[in-house]
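Margin note from the TA: students keep mixing up input and output lines. Inputs are the sequences; the output is the structure of the whole complex. Example:
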Amino acid sequence: MYLADARSTKTGRAAAAAPGTRPGRRAAVPGTVLALGAVSLVTDVSSEMVSAVLPLYVVAALGLSPLGFGLLDGINNGVGALVRLLGGHLADRGARGHKVVAGIGYGLSALCKPLLLLVHTVPLIGGVLAIDRTGKGLRTAPRDAMISLATAPEHRGRAFGVHRAMDTTGALLGPLLAFAVLRIADDRAERAGYSAVFTVSGCVAVLGVLLLVLFVPARTTPVEAPTGPRPTLRDALALLRRPALRRLTLAAVLLGLTTVSDSFLYLLLQRRLGLPAHLFPLLPLGTAAVFLALAVPLGVIADKVGRRTLFLAGHAVLLGAYGVVLSPLRGAGAAVLVLLLHGTFYAATDGVLAAATAATVPDGQQGAGQALVGTGQALARFACSLAFGAAWTLWGPRAALTATTVALAAAAIAATRLLRPAATD
Amino acid sequence: MTAPVVADPDSATPEPPVEGASVRRKVVVLAVAVLLLAGVGTAAVRYAADRADRRNQEQAGGPPVREGAVTLQPTGRQLLLRNLAWGPHRDEVAAVPADHPDGPRTASGVKCLRFHAAAGTGICLQAEHGALDDTYHASVLDASLHETRRFPAPGIPTRARVSPSGHLVGWTVFVSGDSYAGTDFSTRTAIVDTRSWQFYDNLETFQVLKDGHPVQASDLNVWGTTFAADDNRFYATVATGGQTYLVQGDLAARTLTTLHQNVECPSLSPDGTRIAYKKRVAGADPAAPWRLYVLDLATMAETATAEQRNIDDQALWADGRTLLYSLPGDYGSDLWTVPADGTGAPAVLVRSAVAPAYLG
């Protein structure tokens, strides 16, 4: 059936006949998706509260230099990717697996907020952030699996769009709440104000876990699906024998290998477009705002024209963003254009890839499938960061981006061939 | 945190369970939880606000702080600092007689996160608490501490310096916007020529020369400027590939030339021959890796000072022989001194203060 679905994403109709489709899954945006979206929104408020004030806390209240943190990021990315694989696999074992594994992931992150009240050195704070990331890695695949399983296949693009929009809303609200707390506490140089932020963040995180426990149904796997033995780790890897999933993973990895990380893109924007240094902190907000605005409409479009088509189109938009950075265009106008394209790229690819993945794996292995594609993409992007940094050092930023642009174009052509409907058999 | 998952009230209920009484029960549970959590959050915020109120009350046993006129061209030698003593003048730039630093402080009414001054010019890094978040700027001050020019700063202030002539000012901020919610911090360092108001807003754009060869790297960071007497040369730290270097900067040529490894937050001696700096020492606690060293620029010989504790500050030369630096204290930080030649022992100079500058 996944073949049929893969073949006909243009209409998405054939997939509706997939086993496990029940009348309850017909709603355009099911309650489970809204509940998971609310959990993500609340959890992102909590985690972005911490992220927003952490530099200030470290510099102003603890009097430390925060430069050491960056070294941990690479390690965290690698560990996070492997944990995601494990989370997806474990979640598929047993009918309530998704909810339990996701719950452990959300719980682990919630636990980190009070821990921040106890640690006062850069290495220990880095350690707590690593546990937080582990929680995030664990919960990502089961959460996406639950969204897939709760939604009728023809509406998955929209469902993931709604989820990503809610998630991003939380990410934008978190800093607002954090600075509101700091403003009431009225002192940036004392620990007490930040302790208040971490405490409120912890309370918000507990609320997120509670929303999951209370309002996300335990059994998202269809009743008739997992009658056979529990999937083993080998079964999870055997998913790659499925041509459709293998091709999708390969395409995601290829494109991920040529997707420059956000930090590099913003650095390029600042250097190449001659953007004043003080506008730098606004760049990620620009991407997030566009992502938020377009996640739902592009998800709906993905349901109509096919997720793989939109996934590829999203990378064409990213190619356009690189082009603008390389072009003679300069100044704030060009930067706004790049952020528009960059946010559109996320809206057209992030949830859309999850929706495309859902169509290529059987219901009983949604967690493992989501984890496989997501991990492949994340590791590829990490490899791209390493290569891009090296290329920058060797050739300079312009040549590094030119090479990446050429590679992205080549990867997009290869991915288009890989994801051609006829090629999926 | 896994307990709520185990206690899942839904565990035995087959789908779809979310009907009538069950939903009402869940909403009640949620409402009670929201009230409890809101109570905890409110208590934490109120506790923090109460503490902030107490910090605005004059601190018993602290130094007397009086409001008054502070000038950057004093008649006698003065020590200016950011006053951290509790009371209404907390965080203001204050002056004390250099020979009597424990004496009464004259508070200027100007609040700075980081401050430095020389020859009638001041640099004051300030925060603006906006609706969405904090933003920062660098304010160039005249001799009577009035702002003459303001420049936007893209992150949290950490270092500030004025050249001996008062013509050049430089500052460093921490930036964490490289990725939204990321923990990958970097620095931005800027220099302004107060005669032409030329603004070098990011020293990372200068050409870095290492062993005579140009270096380019995406992970380049520059911090901690200190100026020579000629109003063109300066020193700073450049970091790339996990290494830090002392660089000599040339403002006119827009170059940074590496001189020595493992040097952070350099501070040039008044005679221009030595650099006080923090060195990352081998085998130290990774949370506290820096010791205060002095580098002879002619011989590149390193001398450890008698200060054995971890130093995270850009030291200041009180005179040709003595270094001044901050260490954590009861009210944020205290200023300590130690001889620059490796002899003697550290001693407290003044409590509840940070960001010092000598004038006159």
